[in-house]
Amino acid sequence: METNTLLQIAKDYGSPIYVYDAEKIVSQYKRLDTAFNKVKQVRINYAVKALSNISVLKLMKTLGSGLDTVSIQEVQLGLKAGFLPEEIIYTPNGVSLDEIEKAAKLGVQINIDNLSILEQFGTKHPKTPVCIRINPHVMAGGNTNISVGHIDSKFGISIHQIPHILRIVENTNMNINGIHMHTGSDILDIDVFLYASEILFETAKNFKNLDFIDFGSGFKVPYKSGDIETDIEEFGKKLTKRFNGFCKEYGKDLTLAFEPGKFLVSEAGYFLTKVNVVKQTTSTVFAQVDSGFNHLIRPMLYGSQHEIINLSNIKGRERFYSVVGYICETDTFANNRRINEITEGDILAFKNAGAYCYSMASNYNSRYRPAEILWHNKEAKLIRKRETFDDILNNQIEISL
């Protein structure tokens, strides 16, 4: 998006504010779809947890996407956005049997990741199609908090427990129609992913009535100039060849499924903040903005680096700044970062703010959550209002003391 467009949005709607470029979302979706255009049946299920605004879900619907959901609420959002139940896969972790049964009743594809629930669900609902989430014991991901396929992970059923799965399936006569894995976010080496895929193919041979194999996602996007990213085109060629070969071995054209979140929306997002104070200390120059980790927690939680641009002085000379927020704890967005000279009142843009940014925002310090804008067809469309003091009080109950 152009600098002037972002500045105008900040002027019209205030800051802090999230802005999403619909054109970038569309291009990323088409890029992934094209990479696997030699597979007969492909299903891209957008991971709702990355960015769950209903207008973004509706945009995904227009592209032909399905949805990957992790909670009953995300399932309900998907249905509200117009998705058919069969276009939604539900992959929770550690939830009760009751929630899984509620999702099944809504007609979505169930994906189960532990033996206990698998046996309970199969015993009560043997005719309901179920996908099984496998833990391939493959380490992937740029941070331990987002690496979910290793041996110590809470996610999935271990490949070493395949005999237990088969015993449950045989005893309950349940219908297994899919096999799934997700190794983690920020995949750097596609060969590691392909190795995990081989484990999934071997697992799939144990089940004779599969309709699909879901390879999860975790494709890395660049966070700064020169940053490495997953080579989707090369990955598409390699996995397509292997998947099509497996389908011949299996004797059936299966659907190849993915569940990208960050890959589709991360680069489309911009988080705009205003500089309240430029503070010189004995060792550092702080640019203090009108936000904090209550709105963008990824740098503090994951050590993530978001490129920061001074929209108000795009051609100014560079100086070193530590960009921090207004929360009464350490909430550092960037340490000693080169940014075009900053003065109070300038608008800073954090790039790659589409995924896991607003969706992880909170009212910490009783601050309002920001508004959201979708830049669509060269027009800024408000898709979420900025919160007010009434929102802070909503659901609170004052009692007499």
TrEMBL record:
InterPro entries: Ala_racemase/Decarboxylase_C, DAP_deCOOHase_LysA, De-COase2_C, De-COase2_N, De-COase2_pyr-phos_BS, Orn/DAP/Arg_de-COase, PLP-binding_barrel
Keyword Amino-acid biosynthesis: yes
Modified residues (N6-(pyridoxal phosphate)lysine): 49
Swiss-Prot/TrEMBL cofactor(s): pyridoxal 5'-phosphate
Reaction equation(s) it catalyzes: meso-2,6-diaminopimelate + H(+) = L-lysine + CO2
One Gene Ontology term of the molecular function aspect: diaminopimelate decarboxylase activity
Catalytic EC class: lyase
Gene Ontology biological process: lysine biosynthetic process via diaminopimelate
Origin: domain of life: Bacteria
Pathway in which this enzyme or protein is active: Amino-acid biosynthesis; L-lysine biosynthesis via DAP pathway; L-lysine from DL-2,6-diaminopimelate: step 1/1
Presence of keyword Lyase: yes
Binding positions (pyridoxal 5'-phosphate): 218, 356
UniProt: substrate binding residues: 298, 302, 329, 356
Keywords on record: Amino-acid biosynthesis, Decarboxylase, Lyase, Lysine biosynthesis, Pyridoxal phosphate
Catalytic residues, chain numbering: 328 (proton donor)
Residues covered by the Orn/DAP/Arg decarboxylase 2 N-terminal domain: 24-266
All copies of domain Orn/DAP/Arg decarboxylase 2 C-terminal, residue ranges: 18-354
Family as reported in the entry's similarity comment: Belongs to the Orn/Lys/Arg decarboxylase class-II family. LysA subfamily.
Record's subunit section: Homodimer.
PANTHER family: DIAMINOPIMELATE DECARBOXYLASE (PTHR43727), GROUP IV DECARBOXYLASE (PTHR43727:SF2)
Function: Specifically catalyzes the decarboxylation of meso-diaminopimelate (meso-DAP) to L-lysine.
Name of the protein this chain belongs to: Diaminopimelate decarboxylase
